[in-house]
Structures are given as structure tokens and as C-alpha cells.
């Protein structure tokens, strides 16, 4: 029997205006959860509830809030297998990867539990006597967090954990097709002792969410917006927040390049391309988009990648597989559109394309009737091709060639995204020249384009984001505002830049010249 899931605002379930069936993409007829969807008015009301709760939550000492974060980490750790199985069931992510995703929540909590004792300000020397200057980190207020479903629990934790730690309240809108995973995560957070209203989960369609967010911003009950999703929607969110003099934290898509230099370990490079291009069925924002291969090793690299792909297992995500199904029917439909971008000047070197069926089989496939698709390697992509310039969310990787490192950097930057990147080389000069030239917010050397750690900044530039960063201490700037204070205990009014004592130098002084014997 499928789960019945409702939004929770102020600790209470809310009425729904419509329903959505979250299904298992490995077995599309299987309903994992029946989700009650709410409307714009409910989203705006949740933000008002959060604003009320936030005032008291901010008064809780930061070290105590840190202990709540520690409790969340322990609860997630104790429920890791159950949560990972639910992620696998709902979005088709291979179980081993789902376990790793859950581990990322624990790692995030482990990092931030101590930040409750390190929300440091500074004492700053004044230019005047008998005066002290200070800085403080204050919570922003209410954060509205909207997340995608390809990482239904890990990526939300990058927002929720630091936002809560810093004394903010949160209204979280997860993806409907990953609602069961999100609701389970919400329950674990609530069990850690968060007061009602500090964390609220709202299930709604995109248009209702946007309308509710617009209303809440107009009412002044949202003070920060975090969004993970497509560049197109991210642009609209950024425009909306900009009208209200806010800057959103935007983590968007990518067309992530991997440069293969002449001295690269080609077996290692092929392994990295296999994982970053086709792990999670290519449905990561950091998935490999285009392999940019030096012409001298092009054939050897492609041969290795195709061979590795042929021996990889696609199938039931509960087993030991490289990839399971696509996340949801809408992503399968979109992926089929990407396949139409393959042009006559391209060469598909990986075999069949399209959905895996009895009439379009894949050797060793055991996935049944799910939303499984053949992984595709397209050689001969050119700058300007849609396959080269645009994000393709799914198991498809393009290959092109270059002659010089400068050309490779230019190709890497050409699509205008700037999330993740990779270079395979044994030469430190090449690695650092690539790092200096590439526009990506993240660079890997001899590693895949995918794979974040909880204590490093995560985020992109250009079409991949607005320069905001998640994870590590850097995300604290998203969920706090700096406040400056001056305390004058001189007993008189001292005017900055006016009543400043000066010690006057003799700038015309010169040493007497001496002559050497």
C-alpha cells in the first residue's frame, strides 16, 4: 500500500487541493506515495508561520542549535538504510549511491554541529580612542528552499542544516516525484527536537510554488531563497528575488567538461568518464557533458570508454549496477528530445539508443519494464551543436577533440555554464593552467566531474548559478547577515573620518649622502 503524504506547516498536516502519485521509475505501475499538493496561499501561509517561529528559534543559543544538528546527524545515521532504500524505490538511484547520498547528510551535520560554537564575529580596532568596533552574524530570518529530486535528501541538507544552525526558519518545497524521500527526511529532522514551525515542508506544483513565493516576498515573510534546479527556472527565481532586493542562492545545471591531455592515464580517464557521465543515469547537475580529448589520444580514449560502458550493468537499482532508470516520466520524455539532437555528422559509438525494450535490447539488462535507457556516447560533436552547448540531463556524453590546452579551455568555457570540470594529466603546469582558465566553480584533476565533499564550497557560475556557494563555512554567508556595531565610551561625540588623530610625518626627509672611499 502506498504512503499518504501531506504538507506539514507549524507541526500540523495541511489540507490538499490536488494529489500527485509518486511512482517507482523501475516499476512505473507501482505508486510509492500519494502526495497531497497545496496551493500558493498555503505556501505563503507557511512562510508567515515560519516567520513567527523564527523569532524564538533565533533566541536559542547557537551552541544549543548545534546540538540539535548533531542529533539530526545521529538520527539520519541510525536510519540510513531505510532512508536509502526509500530513495532507491522512489527515484531509481542505485542503492549504493543512495547510501552515499544519505551519508552526505551525516557528513554535513558533522561539519556544522561545531559551527554553532564558531559563528564568530570580530573585534576591530577603531581609528579613535575610547571606542570599540564589533561585527556579528545574525540570521537572515525565513529561508524558502526549493529543491530538485535527483538528490532528494543530500542537496536539501546543504540548505536546511546551515540555515537552521544559523537561527533561521525554513519553508522547504521538495520535488513532487521525490516526496516520500523528502517527507521521511523531514520526520528525522523533526525528531531531533525542532520547535513546530521552524522547519515546514510544503508539497506543491511549480506554478503554485512560484506564486506563493512571490506573495511571501511581497509580504516580507521570506528573507532568503535557495533554489536547485534548471537554469531556466533559476533565472526566473533570480529575477523575482531581485525585484525584492534579495539575492537567491542558485544551484543550477551544468554542461561539465572533461579534458583528456596527451599524457593522461587513459584507463583512469575512461573510468572517470563512465562514472560521471552515466552514474545515476547521467542525472546529476555535475554529470559529464562533453569529453574534450586531445587528438593524439582520441581513438584510444573512445575505445576504452565504449568498452567500459559495454561491460557496465544497467538495471534494477537495488542491485550492483552502474545506473538504474530515469527519475520520472517527464525526464524520460525530455531525454528522448535530447536524442533528436544527434546529427548526421555525429557518430554514435556506443550502440543502440532510446529506451531499453525487448525490441531494442541491451546485453545483460535485467530491469524489466522501467524507464531504462541505453547509455549513449556521441563522437564528433562540434562547437555550436546543441549536444555541445546545452545541458542534456540523462545518459548521453559527447566527445570532441582539441590540439592545444588553450583551445581545450576555450571549448570547456564555450557553453557558458560553470559548475564542474575535470582534467586528466600528469603535468602540474597543465593542471594549474586549466584551473586558472576554466570558468567552473569546481575543478577536479585526475578525477570525475562528480563528487562533492561536505566541507568544500559547492556551486557554479554563469548558467550554472549566480556565484553563491553551498557547503562548508562558505554557505554561512547565505544564511547570515553581517551586523557592525561601534561602542564609544569616550563621553563625547567623536566623528568618524573627522575627529581622527594624525601623526604628521616629515615626508621630505632624506638621508645625507655619503661617498664611498
TrEMBL record:
Class of enzymatic activity (EC top level): oxidoreductase
UniProt-listed Pfam families: Aldedh
The keyword Oxidoreductase is annotated on this UniProt entry: yes
Region (Disordered): 1-23
Keyword 4Fe-4S appears in the UniProt entry: no
Record's keyword terms, sorted: NAD, Oxidoreductase
Catalytic residues identified in the record: 251
EC number: 1.2.1.3
Residue ranges with Polar residues bias: 14-23
Gene Ontology MF annotations: aldehyde dehydrogenase [NAD(P)+] activity
Location of the Aldehyde dehydrogenase domain: 17-484
Sequence similarity: Belongs to the aldehyde dehydrogenase family.
Alphabetical list of PANTHER family matching this protein: ALPHA-AMINOADIPIC SEMIALDEHYDE DEHYDROGENASE (PTHR43521)
Quaternary assembly: Homotetramer.
Protein's recorded name: aldehyde dehydrogenase (NAD(+))
Organism ancestry: Bacteria, Bacillati, Actinomycetota, Actinomycetes, Streptosporangiales
Name of the coding gene: aldHT
Amino acid at each position: 500500500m502506498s504512503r499518504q503524504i501531506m504538507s506539514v506547516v507549524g507541526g500540523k498536516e495541511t489540507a490538499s487541493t490536488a494529489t500527485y502519485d509518486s511512482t517507482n521509475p523501475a516499476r512505473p505501475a507501482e505508486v510509492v506515495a500519494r502526495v497531497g499538493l497545496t496551493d500558493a496561499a498555503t505556501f505563503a501561509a507557511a512562510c508567515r508561520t515560519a516567520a513567527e517561529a523564527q523569532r524564538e528559534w533565533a533566541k536559542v543559543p547557537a551552541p544549543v542549535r548545534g546540538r540539535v544538528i548533531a542529533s539530526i546527524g545521529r538520527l539520519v545515521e541510525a536510519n540510513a538504510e531505510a532512508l536509502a532504500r526509500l530513495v532507491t524505490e522512489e527515484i531509481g538511484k542505485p542503492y549504493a549511491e543512495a547510501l552515499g547520498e544519505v551519508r552526505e547528510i551525516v557528513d554535513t551535520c558533522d561539519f556544522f554541529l561545531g559551527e554553532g560554537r564558531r559563528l564568530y564575529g570580530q573585534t576591530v580596532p577603531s581609528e579613535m580612542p575610547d571606542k570599540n568596533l564589533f561585527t556579528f552574524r545574525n540570521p537572515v530570518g525565513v529561508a524558502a528552499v526549493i529543491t530538485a529530486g535527483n538528490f532528494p535528501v543530500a542537496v536539501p541538507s546543504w540548505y536546511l542544516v546551515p540555515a537552521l544552525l544559523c537561527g533561521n526558519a525554513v519553508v522547504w518545497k521538495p520535488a513532487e516525484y521525490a516526496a516520500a524521500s523528502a517527507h521521511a527526511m523531514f520526520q528525522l529532522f523533526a525528531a531531533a527536537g525542532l520547535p513546530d514551525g521552524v522547519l515546514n515542508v510544503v508539497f506543491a506544483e511549480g506554478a503554485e510554488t512560484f506564486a506563493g513565493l512571490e506573495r511571501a516576498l511581497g509580504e516580507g515573510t521570506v528573507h532568503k531563497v535557495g533554489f536547485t534546479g534548471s537554469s531556466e527556472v533559476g533565472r526566473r527565481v533570480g529575477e523575482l528575488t531581485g525585484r525584492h532586493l534579495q539575492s537567491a542562492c542558485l544551484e543550477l545545471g551544468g554542461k561539465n567538461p572533461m579534458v583528456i591531455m596527451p599524457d593522461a592515464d587513459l584507463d583512469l580517464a575512461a573510468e572517470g568518464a563512465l562514472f560521471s557521465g552515466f552514474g545515476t543515469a547521467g542525472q546529476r547537475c555535475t554529470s559529464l557533458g562533453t569529453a574534450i580529448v586531445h587528438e593524439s589520444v582520441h581513438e584510444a580514449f573512445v575505445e576504452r570508454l565504449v568498452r567500459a560502458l559495454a561491460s557496465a550493468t544497467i538495471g534494477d537499482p537495488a542491485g550492483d549496477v552502474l545506473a538504474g532508470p530515469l527519475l520520472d516520466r517527464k525526464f524520460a520524455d525530455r531525454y528522448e528530445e535530447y536524442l533528436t539532437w544527434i546529427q548526421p555528422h555525429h557518430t554514435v559509438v556506443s550502440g543502440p539508443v532510446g529506451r531499453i525494450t525487448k525490441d531494442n535490447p541491451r546485453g545483460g539488462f535485467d530491469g524489466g519494464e522501467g524507464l531504462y535507457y541505453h547509455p549513449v556516447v556521441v563522437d564528433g560533436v562540434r562547437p555550436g551543436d546543441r549536444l555541445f552547448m546545452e545541458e542534456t540531463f540523462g545518459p548521453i556524453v559527447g566527445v570532441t577533440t582539441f590540439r592545444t590546452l588553450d583551445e581545450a579551455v576555450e571549448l570547456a568555457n564555450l557553453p557558458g555554464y560553470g559548475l564542474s570540470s575535470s582534467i586528466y594529466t600528469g603535468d602540474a603546469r597543465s593542471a594549474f593552467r586549466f584551473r586558472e582558465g576554466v570558468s567552473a566553480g569546481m575543478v577536479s584533476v585526475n578525477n570525475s566531474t562528480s563528487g562533492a565533499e561536505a566541507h568544500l564550497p559547492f556551486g557554479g557560475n554563469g548558467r550554472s548559478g549566480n556565484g553563491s556557494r553551498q557547503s562548508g563555512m562558505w554557505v554561512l554567508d547565505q544564511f547570515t547577515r553581517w551586523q557592525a556595531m561601534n561602542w564609544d565610551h569616550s563621553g563625547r561625540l567623536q566623528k568618524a573620518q573627522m575627529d581622527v588623530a594624525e601623526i604628521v610625518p616629515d615626508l621630505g626627509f632624506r638621508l645625507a649622502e655619503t661617498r664611498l672611499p
